[in-house]
Amino acid sequence: MEMFKTKWAYFFLAVSAAVFLYFLFAVNNGPSLGFDRYFSKFFTGLFSENTHPFFEVMDTLGNKIGVGIMTLVFLLFLWFKYRNYEAMAAIVFAVALGNEINKWLKEAIGRPRPDQEHLVDVSSLSFPSGHAMIGMILYTIIAYFIINELKSGSAKWLTAIIAGIWILLMGISRIVMGVHYPSDIAAGFAAGYIWVFISIALYAVLRSMFRRSSYQRESA
């Protein structure tokens, strides 16, 4: 399933661009959003203190160490299982440059963190969420490469659903931990999807070029 060649992929690209631009303009025009007040109250009310250890784990999987470990594990998997060097390069490119883009956006927009108790340590600015953006990038790309190797349609859908829930929980963890506004998360997801789309498109182009070049050398 070439999910990034479907009409749905382009639809979500357009929606992601609209979501990111909407919250970008909304945040620049005022620090307080009704969207943030409603969903902050909703998620903090939905998940009690008993769930905090679980969300701390999800939060850890989205920090630098967690992302680094998960990236390394999947790179080793691609190397040992498939020798897919183009995919390995695509993941490193997407995650590393995506992280730099996120830091640049945070500095350019300059939104402070929520003025409430933070249940985990934070040092950077708030918009867009790095956990949401990098989580979307890393785990969507991992799901993409896994899905491309699966034969069963139900297995592909199951992988996509698990990845979606995983990414969503990672974003929710930042709201429950009190370190992000919901609009930070929504914008992070949107920016992450846009960057995933671009990265996968570049990967497809480069892979096609390398294969064509390899075929021409073998035919010569």
From TrEMBL:
Stretch forming the signal peptide: none
SUPFAM superfamilies linked to this entry: Acid phosphatase/Vanadium-dependent haloperoxidase (SSF48317)
TM spans (from-to): 7-27, 61-80, 125-146, 158-179, 185-206
Pfam families for the chain: PAP2
Residue ranges of every copy of the Phosphatidic acid phosphatase type 2/haloperoxidase domain listed in the record: 87-200
SMART domains the record matches: acidPPc
InterPro entries given in the database record: PAP2/HPO, PAP2/HPO_sf
Keyword annotations of the record: Membrane, Transmembrane, Transmembrane helix
Name this polypeptide is given: Phosphatidic acid phosphatase type 2/haloperoxidase domain-containing protein
